[in-house]
Amino acid sequence: MNEAVPLDSPDLSDHPRAVQGAIVEQSLRIDRTRMDRSATRARMHAATALLVYPSGGSGVKPRLSSINDTLLIDMGSDYRNHAHTTRQPKTKDFNISIGNEPGFPVVSCGNRSRKMTFYVPLNHHQHLQQQQQQQQQQQRHGTTTTGALGWFDGSNVNGSSIVGSRDHVRSSSSSSPSPMTFGMSDPKLGLDLVPRLGTLAVDPQKIGIVSLHQVHVNSAENAKAASNRGTLRRKAGKKIHTHHLYFCMRDFGHRIGDDAEIHFHLYDGNSNRMRALSERFLVRIARDGFSTYVETSHNCTIFTDLGTSDLNQDLYLIANVMRVGKMLHSESVKKGDKLTATTHAYRRPYGVGVLPLNDIVQFDYSVESEEKEFSFKIFQCEEKDYHQLHELIIKKASGKFQPINASPQGQYGLVVSMKLLHGELCQAKLEQPILFQGAAITKKIGFPDVIMPGDVRNDLFLTLERGEFERVGISTAKNIEVTALVLDENGRVVQECIAIASGSPLQAHYKSMVLYHNNSPAWNETIRMFVPIDKFSKAHVRFEFRSCSTRDKSDPKLFGFSFARLMEPGGATIADGAHELHVYKCEDILKVQPNVYLRLPCSAADRHSQGDSPSPYHRSSKEAFYVRTVLCSTKLTQNGDLLSLLQWRNRPEGIQDSLQRVLRLHNEELIKFLQDVLDALFALFSTDDGNSTPHSGLVFHVLVNIFSLMQSSKFQHFKPVMDAYIRDHFAAPLVYQGLLSSVQHLADWLTTTDNLEPIVQCFSSLEFIFKLIIQSRKLFAHASGGQYEDKFKNDLFSVFTSLNGMLAVQSTVQILATQEALLSNAGVVFEQLRTIITRAELESLVRSMLDAVPKDAQPALVQAKLKTIKDMVSGQLFQDDELRSVILAIACKHLRVHLARRDELRLCTEILAEVLIKLYEARAKTGEKPSNTIHHDLDTLFASIFPILLQTINILSNGGNESLVCSLFAVKLGLLQLLDESHYQRMWDRQSGASPGGTTTGSGIGGSGKELRDFIQQCLAIFKDMLEQDWMIFSKDWLVMKMAANDVVRRTLEELAKPLVYRFLGPHSFDSQLWWSYFSVAVIFLTQPSLQIEQYHETRRRKILSTHGDMRVMMGFQILSMWAQLGEHKLHFIPSMVGPFLEVTLVPEPALRKATFTVFYDMMQCEQVGAVMFSSP
C-alpha cells in the first residue's frame, strides 16, 4: 500500500521523507473547484508539489486520482524513455503527462486553469534505483516502505551522483520563470553555482572568461534576489508598463427565477474620475441556476492592457446583475410559467456587486502572482438609482441600498477568482497558455500605456446615459426600451458590428434594459461598435425608443428615435465625450427613413442639417437623449488640427496655423498616422529644387517633436515603424540639405539663447534625423548619379565642426543636458554614416568628437563620452575588421587616461569587458588561426591597456571596491586568455628596448630591462595575492569561475617563465628575487585549496579533470623544468626551496612525486659541490 502525502497540508515537516534541502516547489497549486453539482462543490488545493519516485514494475503506468483530497501520482521506473498522456473521467479536465526533454524527464499535470510541471534530473536515476532496491529488500524482511510519492533527500546529496550540482529544476521555456531560481545557492549542502545562459549550463571551454564572469554575477544576483523556497520570481529587467487581469466566475449564490445576465467590468473609483476602465464581460445564467452555468466554458476572461496608473487603490470590479424575463418579477416566478416565442423578455435591473481590488494591485513585479478567490455581496436599490448604484456602494451611501440575501445553497453571493499577469499580451499567452484557453478578451476603454505597432483597433465605445421624455396626458410613465443599430448611407443595417459585451457574439442591434414607469430613465450601459473603415464615414447610429407593456401579447410600441453621425463634416470622427441628441417623434417604423431624417440636425451642434428642408417628424425641446462616446482607433482621427495638416493643400493659407497647432499635440494621434503626417511635413519642408520654404523652420520643430514623442515609453515600440518608413516609404531626395542646415543652426545657437528645450529635443532625436539625412542623400545620389558629393561631405563636416564646438563649451546645467543628448546619440549616428563616407573620414569624425570633450569636463559629460565609446564597441562598427582597429585605438587612448586617473572605473571596466567579449567571438569565428587584424587588435590592447590595468588592480586591491576589483581582474584574465606566444614576445621586446628601430612604443613603455623586471614582478605579485586568498574576490561557490581563472593563470605563468630563462638567467642578468617570486607563486598555485580535487566527489572531480586536467601536475612539472634551467644558480635557492618542494610532493600524483624526489638529491649534490668549492684552497 502506497503512502501518500496530504497535499492540502502546507506543513510537511513531519513526513518521513520531508528533509532539509528537499527539492520541492511549494508555490505551485492545483485548484479543482466545483467539479460536481453538489452544494459543497469540493475543492482540492495542492499547497506543495511533489517529485515522483518509481514504484516498481516495468513500463509506465501513470495514474491520477483523488483520494480524500490527496493527489496521488504513480508511475513505473522506466519513465525516462516514455511519453504518455492519460485522462481520468473522475477528475474533470484533469490530465497527467510524462514526457522527456534532453536530460530531464518531465512530469506535468493540470486542468484548463491550472498547470504544474516537475523536472527530474536524470543523474538522480541511480539514486532512485538504489532506493527502489532498498525498498524491495525491506519488503523481503517484512518492513514497510514510504511509497511512490517521495522527496529527494538532501542528506544523501553528498553521497549521490549529483554532488557538485545544485541545479535540479529546469524551466520548460526560456521565456517563462523557473520554479526555482537558476543557479540558486544552498550553502548548507555545500553545492556550487551552475552558471547558465537561459536554461542551459554554459561550457567554460566555449565561452570567454569575461562572459563567464558576467554569467556568474547574474546568477549570483538571481540567487540573492530569490525569496524563500517556493516563491516564483522574475528576473529583474526593464520596467513593465502593461498588465492584464485574468478573471473567472466561480459561483453565483442567488436564485432569481429568471434567466440572468451578469456584466463584469473594471472601474476607476477615484472621486475625481469615476469611470469605467474596460468594456463589459457577460456571463449568462439560465433560470435553472448555477448547475446549468457550470457546464459552459464561457466564465473566464482576460481584462487586457492595464497600465501601472490603472492599478491603484481605487480599482474595483463591478458586477451588474440583470434579470431577463417579464416586466414584473412577480409574474416571472409563477409556478410553471416559462417564456415562449410570444412572450417578451426584457432586461430588468436586479442588483450590483462591487469588489475592491486592493489585494490584487499590491503586487511585486518580480513575483509571479497567484490566483486568488473572492466573494462579495449583491446589493439592490430603487430602479431610478440603479445606474449609479456602484458609485453609491463605493461612496458607502448605505441608506440608499441594501444587500440581497443569497439562496440557502449559496451563502456567499458572487464568487470569482483573479490573477494578475504582467508584460505584453503575446508574452503572457506564452507564459500562461492554460489561462487563455477558452477565455474571452475584454478590451480596455482607451489605449494602453504602451502602443505596439501591430495593434489595430477600430472600436467606438458608446454609453447610453439617460433620456428625458414627456408624459403624454395623465397616463402613467412609460417603460422605455432603447434599441441601438448602425446603418450605412443607404439605410441598410450594418450586420454584426455591435458587441454588447465580450464573451457575446457580435450583433446587428442592441436592446437596453427597461426601467419600470420612468420617463427620465438612466441606463449607463456601454456597448462597443466595430464599424468597418470603408463604411464608417457614411454610417450613423440610430436609437429607437419603444414603450413596453406589462402584457405579454402587446408588442413594444415605437414612439420616437434619435440618431448620431459617426463622422463630422471636416472628416474628423465623432468627438469623445457627452452628446445631447434630439428626439424625433414617430410611431411608424416604416416612416423612419434615413434619406429623410439625415437632412435634419441630430443635435444642436450638428452642421450637417439642411435648415430649409421641412421636417416630417415632430420634435419637442423638452425631450433629449444623452450618449457618451470614446473612440479607440488606429485608423480614424478625431483631431481637427491633424486633419488640417493632412489636408494642407486645400487651405494653403492656413499652413502656418496648422503647424503651430500640431506642434502642441503630444498624443497617439501623431503616431497613429505617422506615415501620412511625415509625408505632409516633408512636402512642406522644401521645394522641388531643394530650397527651403517659409515653413521649413517650423516643420523641423514639428519633426523633432514627433521624434521626441517616440522616445517616450508609450511609443518606444514604434521605432521599427519609423525605420520601416525611412527605408521603404520615405521619398524626399532633397531634404538632406535643409536637415543638415537645421542641425548646424541649433548647434551654433546653443550659447546665444536661454530656451534650450528645442535644442535638447533635437540632439535627443539625432538618430532619426541622420537616418533621414542619409536616406535622402542616397535617394539623390541614385537619381543624379552621385552629383554634389563633395558639397555634401563639406556640409557634413561643417555640421560636425559645430557639434564639436558645442561639446567644448563650458558646461552649465542647461548646456550639459544638450551635450549629453548629443553624445548619447553619437554612436548610432557614426554607425549610420559608415554607409556613405570612407573609413578614414569616419575615423576623423569619431576622433575629433571624442577629443572635443575637455579633459576637465564634468563627470556627467565624461560618462556620456565613455558611453559613446561603449555604444560603438557594442554596435555594428566593431564587427568590421578595419573599423574595429580604428575604434579600439581611439578607445584605448581615452581608457588609459581614465584608468590612470582612476575615475569612471566602472564604465571603463564595462567597455573593456565588451571589447574582450567581441574579440573572443571574432576569434572563435576564424578558428584556430585568428586573422591578422584580430592579432593586431590584441597586440594594441595588450600594449596599451595591460600595464595600466595592472597598476589599477594593484592600487584598488589595498582597500578598493571588491566587486570592481573582481570585474577588473576578470578583464585582466580575459585579455590574457586571448594572447598567444607572439603577443608576449613583442611585449618583452618592447620592454627590453628591442623593438624595431630602437624606439619606444605608443603604449608609454620604455626600453630598459628594469621595466620588464618590474612588469613581471607586478604580475607575479597580483597573482600571489589572489592565490594566497584562494580567489576570495570570487564567491565561495564559483568553482567553475575559479577553475577557468586558474587555467588562464597557469598558461600565463608558463609565458612569464620564458623571459626569466632568456633574459634573467645570464651571468650578468640573473635576478634571484624575480626567480624566487616565480617559484613562490607557482608553489602557491599548486597548493591552493581550489585545486585539491581529492576533496571533491567523484562526479565533480571527473568533470574538472575532463575540462582542465590536473593543473597541479602541469604546474609541478613546470616548476621542475624551471629548476632544471637554473644550473649553477640553484645554490641561491638552497635551502629556502626545500619547504616549497616538500609541499609539491604532497600532490597525490606518483609521477610528479617521483620527479620531485630527484630534486632533493639534486639539491644535496649542488650543496655538496658548492661546499667543496668553497673549502678548496
From TrEMBL:
Asked whether the keyword Magnesium is assigned, the reply is: no
Location of the C2 DOCK-type domain: 457-632
Query: What molecular function terms (GO) are annotated for this protein?
Result: guanyl-nucleotide exchange factor activity; small GTPase binding
Which is one Gene Ontology cellular component term of this protein?
plasma membrane
Q: Where is the composition biased (Low complexity)?
A: 128-139, 154-164
Taxon lineage: Eukaryota, Metazoa, Ecdysozoa, Arthropoda, Hexapoda
Q: Which family does it belong to?
A: Belongs to the DOCK family.
Q: Which GO terms describe its biological process?
A: small GTPase-mediated signal transduction
Ordered alphabetically, the record's keywords are:
Cytoplasm
Mention any Pfam family matching this sequence.
DOCK_N
Please state the protein's primary subcellular location: cytoplasm
Can you name this protein? Answer: C2 DOCK-type domain-containing protein
* PANTHER family (UniProt xref): DEDICATOR OF CYTOKINESIS, SPONGE, ISOFORM E
Q: What InterPro entries does the annotation carry?
A: C2_Dock-B (IPR037811), C2_DOCK-type_domain (IPR027007), C2_domain_sf (IPR035892), DOCK (IPR026791), DOCK_N (IPR032376), TPR_DOCK (IPR056372)
Location in the cell: Cytoplasm
- Taxonomic superkingdom: Eukaryota
Keyword Cytoplasm (UniProt): yes
**Region feature Disordered, mapped onto this chain:** 126-182
